[in-house]
Each structure stands twice: as C-alpha cells, then as structure tokens.
Here is the input.
Amino acid sequence: MKKEEILKASRKENKNKDLAEMEVIRQAGTYAGSVGALVCCVVSLLSSQLAHIMLYSPWAIYFSIAATQWLVRFIKLKRKSDLVLTILFLSLDILAFVGLVNRLI
Here is the structure.
C-alpha cells in the first residue's frame, strides 16, 4: 500500500477525525462524568442538610448516563469488567428511580 492509500483508509476508519481529536473527546467525557458525580454529591448534600430530604432524581439521571457509557464500552470492547460496571450502575439507577417514584407517590 502506498502512503496515500493508508492515510485514506485511516481517515475512513476514524471518520475523518484525527487521534488527538478523539483523545480530547474521550477526556472530555471522562471529565464530564466526574463533574456530574460531584454535582450530584453537592446537590444531595445540600438538600439533605438544608431541606432534610434525599433527592433521588439527580442520581437516577447520573446512574443512567454512567450505565449507558459502560454498556457501550462493553459492546465495543467485550470486556467482562465493563459488563460488571454496567450491571452495577444499572442497579443503582433502578434503586434511585424506585426511590424517586416512591417519593413522588
């Protein structure tokens, strides 16, 4: 293969994104997940201390996002550890959702 053919195949495979751009997107997702967890903790702590109630809705949202991220990783990479984390976050999401529905009823 010539250099041009290799570059063309690489661009097609990476959907015209370079490796640096894909790494930045990956890091942004990682940071976003961490910030989301931190915001859920702060919101839960504030509602617990100031209003004396536990909010389940931020956790239901966060855990559904985390479960989806790990599920996609499992589907793409086929690692059992990713499946375990998918099941863990899905379980936490279900518990948070049940708590939310119970609070609303």
